[in-house]
Design brief:
Length: 310
């Protein structure tokens, strides 16, 4: 019996080329005797509800067609009231958007024919999912899942600033331009933090990153050693860098060596709590969340990913 396959499509992602990719994918799928239906998003947050509905209606494979933002919403749609809706559902990704960093970190083919092969073969790896609890700008306690990477400080301020710019310029260009512009507005922040149930620590930081995946910001390899199925977050702390030091180390963000800077370090944890008296912003999967205090957690072995990681 063939699986019930449902595509969640962001029609405006990738400069509106997602429909073209979807048609190519469905042709490849049909060649294998497999068929699928499509549901298009029409507003922010729509992919969450579309995914939940599809799973409740018996979908066995969810195919994300869009960028990191669409993927993040779909992952949130796998859950309801803090629980996974169906542990047997499989996830496939056709990356097409201004940001495809999660897929970039997988280092596997994104061709429609190859994604169709993944579905036909049915081989999966059960990946972890991140969750962060934070305060909205309006002061409400919120919780949201993330597939790839969440961060606070510089990254949160950057995402708040460039949200519209990514659609205009594309992911990599917008992030780089925003990074340089934001550099002259941003001040490093004093933070207190706790890893797992350890002691309270503190310091001054440019940014703190909680990574499930490896890459963010339109091609910045912030956590190149992160694994999607190890039950841990790669927590990257970028310390009190001056503006000149940031400019002199941008290349490290793109070649994966920022952790080698003497003012940066990476550690692993199941949970990272961060709070501050400063006004510090938070983002996840390239979407603005809110502000501190925040708790990042990893939830091991949640989603069956068909596009296998290395």
């Amino acid at each position: 019996m063939e699986p019930k396959i449902v595509g969640i499509i962001n029609p405006v992602a990738g400069h509106r080329k997602t429909r073209q990719v979807w048609l190519e994918f469905t042709r490849e799928l049909n060649k294998k005797g497999l068929f699928c239906s499509a549901r298009e998003t029409d507003s922010p947050g729509a992919a969450i509800n579309l995914t939940r509905s599809a799973i409740k209606e018996g979908a066995e494979v969810i195919v994300v067609v869009g960028g990191d933002g669409t993927l993040s919403e779909v992952v949130n749609g796998f859950f309801e009231d803090g629980k996974l809706l169906n542990s047997a559902v499989k996830l496939a990704i056709l990356p097409k958007g201004t940001g495809t960093d999660f897929y970039r970190g997988l280092r596997v083919s994104h061709k429609p024919a190859d994604v169709a092969d993944f579905i036909e073969k049915g081989e999966t790896v059960k990946i972890d999912v991140g969750r962060h609890s934070y305060i909205s700008i309006d002061g409400e306690e919120c919780q949201r899942y993330f597939a790839n990477i969440a961060d606070l400080g510089y990254g949160g301020a950057l995402i708040e600033r460039i949200n519209g710019l990514t659609k205009l310029l594309g992911g990599s260009a917008a992030y780089l331009l925003g990074l340089l512009y934001n550099l002259f507005k941003y001040k490093n922040v004093n933070l207190k933090f706790r890893l797992d149930d350890g002691d309270e620590q503190q310091g001054t930081f440019l940014a703190v990153i909680a990574a499930n995946g490896r890459c963010f910001g339109g091609g910045m390899w912030i956590a190149p050693d992160a694994e999607l199925a190890d039950g841990l977050l790669d927590c990257v702390f970028v310390g009190d860098l001056s503006k000149i030091e940031v400019l002199g180390n941008i290349h490290r963000l793109y070649n994966g060596t920022i952790k080698e800077h003497p003012k940066a370090f990476t550690t692993h944890a199941r949970k990272l709590e961060v709070w501050s008296e400063d006004h510090v912003l938070v983002e996840a999967d390239g979407e603005f969340s809110g502000k501190l205090a925040v708790t990042f957690e990893i939830i091991p072995a949640q989603i069956n990913l068909l596009n296998r990681a290395d």
